[in-house]
Amino acid sequence: MINKPLVLTYLYLLIYILLSSGVILYNKWVLSPKYFNFPFPITLTMIHMGFSGAVAFFLVRVFKVVSPVKMTLEIYATCVIPISAFFASSLWFGNTAFLHISVAFIQMLKALMPVATFIMAVLCGTDKPRCDVFLNMVLVSVGVVISSYGEIHFNVVGTVYQVTGIFAEALRLVLTQVLLQKKGLTLNPITSLYYIAPCSFVFLFVPWYFVEKPVMAVSQIQFNFWIFFSNALCALALNFSIFLVIGRTGAVTIRVAGVLKDWILIALSTVVFPESTITGLNIIGYAIALCGVVMYNYIKVRDVRASQLPSESIQERITKDWKLEKRSSDLFTPSNSSANVGGRGEGNFAASELNVDEEAPLISPSRLSHIGRSQLSNHTA
Q1: Maximum alpha-carbon separation in the chain
Q2: How much helix, strand and coil, in percent to the nearest 5, is found in the chain?
Q3: Model confidence band, residue 371 (pLDDT cutoffs 50, 70, 90)
Q4: pLDDT, mean of residues 302-320
Q5: Sign of the torsion formed by the C-alpha atoms of 361, 363, 369 and 374
Q6: 193 neighbors 48 (Cβ within 8 angstroms)
Q7: Structural contact between residues 177 and 120, judged by C-beta atoms closer than 8 angstroms
Q8: Coil, strand, or helix at residue 276?
Q9: 337 CB-contact burial (10 Å; exposed 0-12 / middle 13-18 / buried 19+)
Q10: Distance between CA atoms of residues 248 and 271, nearest Å
């Protein structure tokens, strides 16, 4: 007997992996001077944001597929605007990196995402320095350094763009956790695009006006409507596929799918773009970094599961442990301290629940953004 829900889940995962890999390869093909030769990453990103925002507007306001959330001017100014700014920056820098370095090397550098997220979380006060996580971060960093050393076509400019985009994305993720979740605001992919995409478009307009507009005015632009329409459509479909995947799977499955997608993408990129060469040091370095990422994912999933235990069961365990301790030692005398222990337990539970980073680090920036975090939180709760 075929398990239809299970088959459907794997189908959604396959669609996500194919779309995620396809969008990255498509962007590289469009931007690369050797292929379609449209070396304007800000313009391409603005096309994505404009198209996504327009579709989201029709779905929310015209067809009323979903209802808009209660958005006040204060929430928009303090939450949506800063998140949109870093979202636009991460996409801008990430797409610009395609002009200078290979897709395979970009995916290897993206292994730094857990490192960047952990650093930003500690700086913003949403996470605390931990020895086990720190050791994983060291392992990831060492792996990325080895992979970079083995890169034949190493380019400093492209590497700086990509790493900057990674840290911009990490800061956006932390801001999403701090700002949106504290406001109790939950956005699905459609409402996320409805609010975030137009604001990101405005932010991208400023660097576009000063950086790309003067060059586009004097250059021979190869503009093909169907190329850009299909490219934007793939990016939009990817956001919806993320919604489907998150709605049917858990954190572990998403993280495993992300790892699998990266390996597939690295292999495919060498086929689609023959000039991309992978060396033995690339593979060794990335494998080392991946070990750190997998360990990081395991720690985070374990923390998520621990934080989701009902507060009653935690209280029962505290009481049970206290009784066992009382039996084994007469030095402990029951007093108001038992209530304090219970209070601290509940407080720690709430703090750990808030500090958990539920973002899948291997999923690229233009995909599982604030959308993934809010929906994953709902699914796993």
Answers
A1: 86
A2: 80, 0, 20
A3: very low
A4: 62
A5: negative
A6: no
A7: no
A8: coil
A9: exposed
A10: 32
By three-state DSSP, how is residue 219 classified?
coil
Q: Find out whether 19 and 240 touch, Cβ atoms under 8 Å.
A: no
Cβ neighbourhood burial of 313 (10 Å; 0-12, 13-18, 19+): exposed
Q: What count of other Cβ atoms lies within 10 Å of the Cβ of residue 74?
A: 9
8-state DSSP, 111 = G
Q: Which amino acid is at 94?
A: G
pLDDT in tens, 187-198: 777 888 899 999
* Cβ neighbour number for residue 175 with a 10 Å cutoff: 20
CA angle (201, 187, 253) in 5-degree steps:
105
What is the arithmetic mean of pLDDT over 272-289?
A: 90
Query: And the tokens for 288?
Result: 């080392």
Average pLDDT over residues 308-330: 49
218 HSE (CA, 13 A, CB side): 4
Q: What is the pTM of this model?
A: 0.77
In the structure encoding, which two tokens stand for residue 29, read together? 């093909």
Contact 243, 370 (CB under 8 A): no
What is the spatial distance between Cα 294 and Cα 318, in angstroms, rounded to a whole number?
A: 31
- Alpha-helical runs (H) found in 32-80: 41-57, 73-75
* Cβ(112)–Cβ(140) below 8 Å: yes
DSSP string, 128-174: ---HHHHHHHHHHHHHHHHHHHT-TT--HHHHHHHHHHHHHHHHHHH
